[in-house]
Design brief:
heterodimer, A: Rossmann fold, 2 domains, 6-stranded mixed sheet, 36% helix, B: mainly alpha, 9 helices
């Protein structure tokens, strides 16, 4: 289901990490450098002049080498990072799953973490009460939820994280390579849930190193290289070009 | 910071967690909040009435009210710095309004202050100190103290993320400040030519506005109240502006 309504719009967006030339980790050193006038910064442009708009219900993959700016793009679209230049607009509820289980408190029980995590994602207590059963059921963690999560395995934490983050149908779902954990059966349920969101009109944005995952889930694909957009088109076309580039058969046009 | 209101349930949950952690750590955790200022008061009363001898009627009440105020202020500042620093990683993954963390710690600080009120009133009764209707002014005093502290916390907490030594430095400043504020000594013992230092201390009026209804049994004089309000508004404005300008950079520093 794709409509003309745009849910994500990025215009002339650049993002710069300003790195201090000297390492200035302390206030004392900062004061010394400030007085000397020797505060120098190196600018690292992680994203350069990107423009794109994503319509309701679109499925978009992002590919590129390490350090190409894929994760940074997802962070800017989710609203975690503020762009240095240009604008980003979002409509509706964005569920960014940049890392499963961020914000978990390891001293608290699974139940307590369900509340804490969902509240961090912007839900209200009442909404969580209503969805609690469904979250518990989907996680399949049963009685484990009564004990502190410091005893959980990585897989269990991932299940809990995913169950919370996807308990509500988001308008935009942002996934950053998080589906690598958990057993095959849980992975399948995750995929089913994502597919369900897609059927219901959720816009999906995925970063993955696995071309098959992108092929399977996305109709449109972006290719980033050194913070610039090299290609934006149907998945097969972009992946073909990216593959040829990876094998050294195509060079990226230098801007 | 505009959508803080829609995150009120989160703020509430963070406050509850803060209190739970504080009281779960030690077996007498809850009792300790009440006991600690009392013991400090006891020590100070012995030291000051035996060694320095200044005539202050019912010194224990004077000292206790001061200590409670100071504990609230210093603990809230340090924990709001720690809270933002401790959650900085989270802020690189989830788009949550960053001010919820310092805000929640200041609210938890107020709850602690209210718990510590219980032994204070016990002391008032035991020492035969008269409790006058002016204590009804206390909510206003506490609100001013809370807003002043929140302003300072908003100003300082991003710095704790940017520079690892901020909290150490603030600890030094706090040690200095505790002596520059008439918390456990009366203004009168400060030599005339040093008194300006205490008088220009922004914390002092906020403290007196808190202590007056308890110790003097009167609504704070307009002079103190005006200064306290001005100082509080100033702290809050500076804190909010500084936080808005600097907090967007937090995810870059983790």
């Amino acid at each position: 289901m794709t409509t003309d309504r745009k849910v994500v719009e990025v215009r002339g967006m650049s993002l710069c990490y300003r790195l201090a030339k000297q390492k200035i980790p302390s206030l004392k050193e900062y004061a010394i450098h400030f007085i000397r006038g020797s505060l120098a910064y190196e600018e690292l442009w992680a994203l350069r002049d990107l423009s794109l708009s994503i319509g309701e219900g679109e499925t978009v993959g992002v590919v590129g080498r390490n350090g190409a700016g894929k994760s940074t793009l997802l962070k800017v679209v989710s609203g975690v990072l503020k762009p240095s230049r240009g604008t980003v607009t979002r409509r509706g509820w964005v569920a960014p799953i940049l890392e499963l289980g961020t914000g978990f408190d390891f001293e608290l029980t699974g139940y307590e973490n369900i509340y804490l995590n969902a509240l961090l994602l912007g839900r209200q207590r009442k909404e969580i009460d209503e969805r609690l059963e469904q979250i518990v059921e989907f996680s399949g963690l049963g009685d484990f939820l009564r004990s502190p999560i410091r005893n959980y395995s990585t897989g269990m934490l991932a299940r809990l994280g995913f169950s919370i983050a996807t308990a509500w149908k988001p308008d935009v779902l942002i996934l950053d390579e998080v589906l690598g954990v958990g057993d095959a059966r849980f992975l399948k349920r995750c995929e089913q849930r994502i597919e369900g969101f897609h059927q219901a009109g959720t816009t999906i944005l995925i970063v993955s190193h696995d071309p098959d995952a992108v092929r399977k889930n996305c109709r449109r694909c972006l290719w980033l290289e050194q913070g610039r957009m090299v290609a934006d088109g149907p998945t097969e076309e972009t992946l073909d070009r990216y593959k040829r580039f990876s094998e050294g058969k195509e060079t990226v046009p230098q801007v | 910071m505009t959508d803080l209101l829609s995150y009120r349930d989160l703020v509430f949950a963070l406050v509850v967690r803060d209190l739970k952690v504080r009281y779960r750590r030690s077996t007498i955790g809850f009792l300790w909040t009440m006991l600690q200022p009392l013991l400090t008061m006891l020590v100070l009363s012995m030291v000051f009435s035996a060694l320095f001898r200044f005539d202050l009627p019912n010194y224990p009440v004077y000292a206790l009210a001061g200590i409670m105020f100071w504990n609230f202020f210093s603990q809230s500042i340090i924990s709001s710095m720690n809270s933002l620093k401790g959650n900085a990683h989270l802020l690189t993954k989830i788009p949550v309004p960053k001010a919820v963390f310092p805000l929640a710690t200041v609210i938890a600080g107020i709850v602690n202050l209210l718990f510590a009120m219980v032994p204070l009133f016990a002391i008032l009764v035991v020492t035969g100190h008269s409790i006058r209707p002016a204590v009804l002014f206390l909510p206003v005093s506490i609100l001013l103290a809370a807003l002043f502290t929140l302003g300072a916390g908003l100003l300082l907490s991003p710095m704790a993320v940017f520079f690892y030594d901020t909290i150490e430095m603030i600890n030094v400043v706090m040690t200095l400040l505790v002596y520059m504020t008439p918390i456990f000594y009366p203004m009168e013992i400060v030599p005339e030519h040093y008194r300006w230092a205490v008088r220009f201390n922004p914390l002092r009026s906020v403290l007196e506005v808190f202590r007056d209804p308890i110790y003097n049994g009167k609504i704070p004089p307009v002079s103190h109240l005006t200064v306290a309000i001005v100082v509080t508004v100033l702290a809050l404005v500076v804190g909010v502006v500084a936080f808005r300008r600097s907090s967007d950079r937090i995810p870059f520093y983790v």
